């Protein structure tokens, strides 16, 4: 594992962890965009540039769709600074760290027995993103968080599958999936703002 | 011209065009219905040589379409399923503008049907897992139209279906690596478990079925019945594809016994859980669970020759799902009844007898009442299970008993004297005619299964290994 792989993988996981912990729509969108950037740099270490470029372009487009939806429905609030840290956030952080630690511990065996062609840091990052995505889905019910969690989950899956087998059609399908997920999320976010709007006097 | 272009490209193109005129419901419904009917008929009559002669002109059709280095393939062997899917789409679209469903129902239902066809046509077939997830995304606007907040059931649906994708994709990758390994390889168990979990998530197998129950309460019954019928039909055929392609999966020790037990447990649980429901909108989920159980049981009994009965069950099951969706939609949209709770249905028989009778008829029909459409395949499955193991029969008795108990409770509620006198409700004559026609069709299928159900067995013709065909 090169030190850069570790850095980029670690960054991607850290961003996913921030999204698990924070409850702030503006930072969620920014951190999601940064997560795709870290993944792009990680993918460059084992795949051709075009493959990595597709991932970041689609990821950023998905992020943009969510950002524009939030902005146009007036749901984007100013970033809170300095951020407050609550007990529930601490709890989520601990859970996220625990999950990453477990994956880190299991990864060598898993890599040897099931994913021998996947670089170790890619395996840790992809599994970490998938599990953090699932954790986030289990803890949040608002459409935006579910959408971001599922985008994180699928970015982990596409990273893992990309390290096993490179297929243009599958890449195309994953790209379509990410975009449709972002559009679905946007649709659900708009619905929430519609319903909230109707309730106002 | 190629077959994938006809049954995938054209409906997607029309679906996207119809998206531009969502408020013209009548036009959208007519176009979607007509196109589906045409494509269904074409699929059923398409010649085996893939050559059509029209007006003296000879048209030859390719069966494959290259797509991003891979291919979509639809041969004559696949066309029975394709015809069935477009027939289902026709059935749901033809009546759609009578109900207050999403304005995108017609356009998106065309896209969804085409995508289900693509699921079966994509080669390598494992990549279809991502296509199934795309269908989930496309179905979200239908399940939760604008103006309503997204319910927890919809989000759970999204999550559960997303979780299934890695199980199917990665299991397939593992399988390809061990295709030639001996059956004692531990990877086989691991891969098989992943396949089972993936399909359990897709098919809402107990205890992963809660999203269907919740969607039943949140979503329009017309939309839900359509989506679930398409899903159950295609995913079950897709599962057959796994068993057909992977010999070691078919020959895994005890796989048949496990499938039989799983199937019967689902039938029993579906029936038992159904028995204690008091909201008609939730019942569909339990019927769905029990029906998945019957399908898995048939797969487990394949050595006893049960697969043709699995294929035969697709039509009556879809017919009763349709009827269930139709009656609940009439109750909701044409009679403007917001609740289908037992407490609000007391004495409903006096207010609207035909609809009440239709509910009872549907539930009895889907339980396998003699003389009705579903009796021939279910009877065969009951007999095959009985000849094999008394425990299986007991499970099936519990399942059927649970459904019948629910019917009794429903009948009691519908005929109970209401505390307050309520005026009779009137439905349009067309509703009565439709109910009568569908009832007659259910009887006709029950009396003449060889005419209506035997041709559907051709769905199994692509699975040469599974069926032991040459």
Walk me through what this model shows.
The complex is a heterodimer of chains A (201) and B (470). In chain A, helix 1 runs antiparallel to helix 2. Chain A is built from 7 helices and no strands. By secondary structure, chain A is an all-alpha fold. Chain A has helices at residues 3-21, 25-44, 49-72, 87-113, 120-139, 143-164, 168-199. Chain A is globular, with a radius of gyration of 17 Å. Chain B has 470 residues and is mostly helical. Helix content of chain B is 70%, strand content 4%. In chain B, the strands form 2 sheets. In chain B, strands 3-4-5 form a 3-stranded antiparallel beta sheet. Chain B has a two-stranded antiparallel sheet with strand order 1-2. In chain B, a hairpin with a 2-residue loop joins strand 1 and strand 2. In chain B, helix 2 (25-45) packs antiparallel against helix 3 (79-94), helix 3 (79-94) runs antiparallel to helix 9 and helix 16 (353-367) runs parallel beside helix 19. The longest helix of chain B is centred in the last third of the chain and has 28 residues, at 307-334. The mean pLDDT of chain B is 90. The A-B interface holds A 114, 130, 134, 137, 141, 143, 146, 150, 153-154, 157, 160-161, 164-165, 167-170, 172-174, 176-177, 180-181, 183-184, 187-188, 190-192, 194-195, 198 and B 67-70, 122, 127, 130-131, 133-134, 137-138, 140-141, 144, 146-150, 152, 154-155, 158-159, 162-163, 165-166, 169-170, 173-174, 190.
Backbone shape of chain A: globular
Strand content of chain B: under 5%
Strand element count of chain B = 5
Number of strands of chain A: 0
Major beta sheet of chain A, specifics?
A: none
- State the major sheet of chain B: 3 strands, antiparallel
- Order of the strands making up the biggest sheet of chain B: 3-4-5
């Amino acid at each position: 594992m090169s030190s850069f792989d570790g850095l980029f993988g670690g960054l991607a996981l850290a961003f996913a962890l921030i999204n698990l912990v924070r409850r702030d729509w503006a930072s969620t969108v920014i951190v999601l965009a940064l997560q795709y950037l870290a993944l792009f740099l990680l993918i460059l270490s084992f795949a051709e540039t075009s493959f990595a470029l597709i991932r970041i372009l689609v990821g950023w487009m998905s992020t943009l769709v969510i950002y524009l939806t939030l902005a146009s429905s007036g749901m984007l609030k100013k970033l809170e600074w300095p951020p407050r840290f609550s007990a529930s956030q601490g709890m989520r952080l601990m859970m996220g760290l625990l999950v990453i630690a477990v994956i880190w511990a299991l990864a060598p065996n898993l890599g040897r027995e099931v994913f021998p062609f996947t670089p170790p840091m890619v395996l840790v990052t992809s599994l970490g993103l998938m599990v953090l995505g699932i954790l986030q889905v289990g803890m949040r019910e608002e459409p935006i968080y579910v959408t971001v969690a599922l985008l994180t989950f699928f970015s982990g899956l596409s990273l893992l599958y990309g390290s096993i087998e490179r297929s243009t059609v599958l890449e195309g399908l994953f790209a379509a999936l990410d975009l449709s997920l972002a559009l679905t999320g946007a649709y659900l976010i708009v619905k929430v703002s519609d319903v909230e709007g109707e309730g106002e006097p | 011209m190629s077959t994938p272009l006809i049954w995938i490209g054209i409906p997607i193109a029309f679906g996207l065009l119809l998206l531009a005129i969502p408020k013209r419901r009548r036009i959208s419904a007519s176009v979607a219905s007509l196109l589906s009917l045409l494509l269904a008929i074409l699929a059923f009559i398409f010649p085996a040589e893939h050559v059509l002669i029209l007006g003296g002109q000879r048209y030859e059709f390719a069966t494959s379409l290259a797509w991003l280095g891979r291919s979509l393939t639809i041969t004559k062997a696949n066309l029975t399923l394709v015809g069935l899917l477009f027939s289902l789409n026709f059935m749901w679209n033809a009546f759609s503008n009578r109900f207050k469903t999403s304005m995108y129902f017609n356009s998106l239902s065309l896209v969804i049907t085409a995508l289900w066809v693509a699921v079966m046509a994509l080669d390598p077939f494992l990549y279809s897992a991502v296509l199934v997830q795309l269908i989930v995304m496309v179905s979200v606007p239908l399940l939760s139209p604008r103006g309503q907040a997204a319910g927890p059931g919809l989000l759970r649906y999204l999550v559960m279906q997303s979780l299934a994708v890695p199980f199917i994709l990665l299991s397939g990758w593992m399988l390809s690596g061990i295709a030639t390994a001996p059956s004692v390889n531990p990877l086989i168990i691991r891969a098989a478990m992943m396949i089972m979990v993936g399909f359990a998530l897709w098919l809402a197998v107990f205890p992963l079925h809660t999203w269907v129950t919740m969607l039943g309460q949140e979503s329009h019954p017309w939309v839900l019945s359509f989506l679930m019928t398409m899903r159950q039909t295609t995913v079950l055929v897709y599962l057959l594809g796994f068993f057909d392609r992977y010999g070691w999966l078919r020959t895994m020790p005890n796989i048949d016994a496990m499938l039989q037990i799983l199937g019967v447990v689902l039938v029993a649980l579906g029936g038992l859980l159904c028995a204690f429901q008091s909201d008609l909108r939730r019942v569909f989920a339990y019927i769905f669970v029990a029906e998945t159980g019957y399908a898995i049981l048939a797969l487990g009994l394949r050595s006893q020759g049960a697969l043709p009965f699995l294929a035969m069950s697709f039509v009556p099951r879809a017919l009763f799902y349709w009827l269930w969706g139709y009656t609940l939609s009439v109750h909701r949209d044409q009679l403007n009844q917001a609740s289908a709770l037992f407490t609000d249905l007391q004495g409903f028989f006096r207010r609207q007898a035909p609809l009440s009778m239709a509910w009872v008829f549907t539930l009895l029909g889907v339980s396998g009442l003699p003389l009705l459409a579903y009796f021939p395949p279910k009877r065969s499955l009951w007999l095959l299970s009985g000849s094999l193991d008394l425990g299986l029969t007991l499970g099936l008795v519990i399942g059927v008993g649970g459904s019948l108990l629910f019917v009794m409770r429903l009948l009691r509620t519908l005929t109970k004297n209401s505390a307050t006198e309520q005026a009779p409700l009137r439905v349009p004559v067309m509703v009565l005619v439709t109910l009568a026609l569908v009832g007659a069709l259910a009887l006709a299928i029950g009396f003449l299964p060889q005419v209506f159900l035997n041709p559907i067995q051709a769905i199994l013709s692509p699975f040469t290994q599974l069926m032991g065909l040459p």
